[in-house]
Design goal:
- This protein is 49% helix and 12% strand.
- It has 492 residues and is of the alpha/beta class.
Amino acid sequence: MPAELELLLRARYPLVWLVTPEEQRAVDIACRVARSLGDPVVAWSSTWGLHDAPGPPVAGKGRDPLDLLEHIRKETKRSLWILKDLPALLYRGDNAALVRALRDTAVQAKEQGSTILCIGNMAAVPSELEGEAAVHRLRLPDQREHQTQLLAVARQLGVHVADAPARELSQACLGLTLEQGENIWARVRAAGGQFTLEDVEQVLAEKRRIVRSTGFLEFVNPVDIDEVGGLQGLKHWLQRRSLGFSEDARRIGLPWPRGMLMVGVQGCGKSLVSKAIAGSWRQPLLRMDVGALMEGLVGASEQNLRRALDLAERVAPCVLWVDEIEKAFSGMSAGTDGGTIMRMFGTMLTWMQEKDSPVFVVATANDVEGLPPEFLRKGRFDEVFFVDLPDELQRRAIWKVHLAERARRAGDDGLLDRVAIDGLVGLSAGYSGAEIAAAVVEGAFEALAEGERLDGTHLARALSSSPPLSRTRAESIDKLREWARGRTRSAS
């Protein structure tokens, strides 16, 4: 049972604002605490009105929220009141009377020794209630709770689950609600699964689908670190930093690796590195879509961000990737959004500074002018790297990676023998890794159109037909390099 919620209820706080998507789990926990205290429990919803809890609701009286609060004020018996829909109603247009009534009722509940528990998924409390309400966010179930549920479902189905599969399957469900976990167990069983280690991948696949349905987090397939050409300095740092997840690091009291910020020229491999970190460390990769977090309702965007960060912590250890983060918080100083971006930025900074979970944040940026200075302060990231255009050695490695991949896809074992890489390395000076990759594809199309096998001639023509970003945007790249000098660590 979550200790903090139990403590608030045992202390009989008059007004508890409980933030959770798991309404039934919250009700069950509250009822267990009330039962141990000998307090009756009365629940309310906008559809059923007042009814006893726990148990299935039976339509009662007082569906109007103002009538409900008046009823609570008149009640003299000490009770736990579980109000399910009130937080959402408080965020409707004209709610001044309802907020006032809840404040008055909280005062009366304190005199009675009662507790009003408001359950919803809105983190922001109306400002008028900040002095009265104790806000608590119910954490998602841990591995033990998921395992307990799995074993209960298995018993109902008459299936025996060994200890090792039970641990692995329940670990795979971290980050999900108990209801979502129960649905997964039903799906596994319906597909013929026996709750063995062979079913772990099916659980992970369903989990990826559920996480993707949130709209602001997505599981991304990692790649092998060998697919990244060059960037030896960054690779060496990542190899050493991975030791921070080891038992040896825990034994000597080292903190979890916090994350890194990659600033650099567009198309030079920042996104690929983000995927390669997860692949190298064998951790799940979550990409956050900050734009999808935005909602018009007051407090909803910040709540979505907290849900995303909480979910990342439940999936941990993991890599959380925020791509082009400068765009996410652009316009923060303009104040045209009612301060939403500013509040979200503050939430993100606080979480990054105070988190003690193994969530490694990888943020990428192409334009440092959009980054607030406090974002770059030490303590939020372990390191800030600058990813420049590839030098000669890096371009050679990049050409080899992409040509080898092209040869594999085309079944052309002789491609590397037909291409003079030294010449291409010289011709591609000033090109980014993405531009080199695009030249390989363009050259392959040209060879196909001419009915020939791909060779260096097609690749050279592809390069010459598309000038690199380093020529078309030379001034902005020089400005970025000047900023990075003395402020960042070179990735090369």
